[in-house]
Structures are given as structure tokens and as C-alpha cells.
Amino acid sequence: MNGTQRTFFSRLSSSAILWCIALVITFSGHHVAFFLLISSLAMLGLWEYFAMLDHKGIPHFRATGMVCAFVFLAGSFFYFQKFGLAHAYDFEGSVSVFLLLVLFGRQMFGRTREVAPLAAMAFTVFGLLYIPTLFNFMTKIVFAMPENGQFYVLYLVVVSKFSDMGAYLTGMMIGKHPMAPLISPKKTWEGFAGAICFSMLGSFGLLWLIPHKLAALDSTHALILGLLIGVSAVIGDLAESVLKRSCDVKDSGHMLPGIGGVLDLIDSLLFTGPILFFYLRLVAHGV
Fold this sequence. Notes:
This protein is mostly helical. The chain has helices at residues 3-27, 31-56, 62-83, 85-106, 115-135, 137-144, 149-174, 189-209, 219-247, 262-266, 269-284, and strands spanning 178-180, 184-188. The protein has a two-stranded antiparallel ribbon.
């Protein structure tokens, strides 16, 4: 077994174990355990993001960002559970305003004519939007589909990770034409095609296995979502590659063998989660 194959199997085994644990927690029915899972992954991913900025010497407000992220995640979960999605949106908006007030407030007596305070605020806000805000859509899916929400989370994880696996395998075996050489030289158009094919396979496969648990979806939805999630997963992977290349790091962290960091594990879900949520709310759930 060569180095590439060892890397693949290490990555595959680590991902499978971690996502199996995550799905067991999701299906346990304990909403607090699910909240702890989602918030822990989001907070660790945000910590890694700030660590990458440190590596490059980019200014940011780590403590303020981490506190606001926890308040955002905990408050959203509370409002989801007690009052529903509509009130949670109001809470999320209030946290966003509060964050801006805090960030500008702490700069009140600083040298505001220099670029560093503005850069620190911009990179802090971006981190909160990119990681905890987007990853929180996993929780929104559960509460948007109260009867079988956990099965839609299962669908999301399977289709997204099938896309990741398809991109990796196809690119490794037959990839020749670079897709985004300035961002990630190893990503190829062949890998992209593999990602779409595998995401379609995961989408139709789960719909065939558990049709009654995914009652809001039919074969047309499975086709559209397979395409949308497959494309979004690739974009999510490339988006993190932009961050890593900008910060001159290979992985977001070293916590997970064969994968890297937590952000490397959840990068595709940051984009596929919102796609599935809005599709269920605006298209499929209303059918």
C-alpha cells in the first residue's frame, strides 16, 4: 500500500468513525446532546480559524468572537426548542447587532484611522458568519422537520460525504485536468465529476432505503438535491482551501488522523446544510 492509499484509508476510517458517533448522538433523541455536538464542532472549527489567522499574523478578536459564537449557538438552540424558528431568527439578528456594537465599542479609543482595527473586525465577523452561522443550519434542519429531522441530517451527511469521497477517489485515480490550480492544485475536473456522481448515488440510495423517513422528497427532489449538494460540497472544500492557502497552512489543525482539523471535517457541510434547509423550507416541504 503506497502513501496515497494509506492517506485515503486513514481519512476514510477517521471520517466514518467520527460521523457514526455524530449520527448516534443525532438519533438518540436527546436535543441537548445534539446541541453539544453541533456547538462543539462549530466552536472548535472557529478556534482553528482564528489559529490560522494567528499563523499568518492577521489581526482578529478571538475572545470576543468565541464568546459571541457560543451565545449565538446556545441562544439559537434555546429559541428553536422553546419558540420555533421565527423567534430564533429574531435572536440571531440581535446577536449580530450586539457583535457589531461590541467590536466598534472596543475600538472607540483606539487608533481608528489605521487599517488594523478594521481588518480585525472584518476577519472576526467573517469567521462567525462562515463557521457557527452556517453550521447552525444542521440544528435548524432538525427543528424545521420535527417528525423526522434527524433523517434529513443523515441524508445531508451521507450525500455531502459521498461527494467528498467521490471527488477524492476519482481525482486520485484519473484526475488530470486541474480545476482550481491557484487554490488547490490537486482538485481536478474529473474529481468534480466524481463528486457529482457519488452525491447523486448517495441521494437516490437513501431515498430508496428510507423513503418514508424522507417523505418530503421524491425522485425529482433527490436528483436536484444530489446535484446541488454535490456542487456545494465541492465549493465548501475549495472555500476552506482558499483560507488555508491564504494563511499558509496545510490543514486547519492536527486533531483528527488522516483528516487534519475539525474545520477540514465539516467544511463541505458549512455550505450543504443551508442548501438543504432552504430547499426543504421553500421547495420540497411545501409540496
